[in-house]
């Protein structure tokens, strides 16, 4: 499919998945390609979790500078969980919810 070709030529290792990758994820879910959708969802969640860990490690002065990015990362994790739930991917949603809860403890 077109999405598979996108992933082949633009994998996360070359072009890290970000908020603009959400439509690709949702299209996989809509197409019924749950395994591929969950794979993309996991990559996205891991990317945003790493961002949140980085922001939390900064001096409070610099954390304020990244406040908008921090909020965006939490919002994307929530969106990933909602998408997984919408397409009845409960295990995936639970993994993301746990990740979200762990990150919330840092803030």
Features:
107 residues; mainly alpha; 6 helices
Give a written overview of the molecule.
The model has no long low-confidence stretch (mean pLDDT 95). 77% of the residues lie in helices and 0% in strands. Helix 3 (34-57) runs parallel beside helix 6. It is mainly α and 107 residues long.
User: How large, in whole angstroms, is the Cα Rg?
Assistant: 14 Å
Distance between the termini: 40 Å
Helix content: over 70%
How much is the average pLDDT? 95
Q: Unreliable runs, pLDDT <50, ≥5 residues? A: none
| Strand content range | under 5%
Number of strands: 0
Morphology: globular
Protein structure class: mainly alpha
Main sheet characteristics: none
The secondary-structure element order is HHHHHH
How many helices? The count is 6
Brief account:
The chain is mainly alpha-helical and 107 residues long. It has 6 helices and no strands.
Produce the secondary structure layout:
Elements lengths: L1 H8 L12 H9 L3 H24 L2 H6 L1 H20 L3 H15 L3
Helix pairs in contact: 2-3, 3-5, 3-6, 5-6
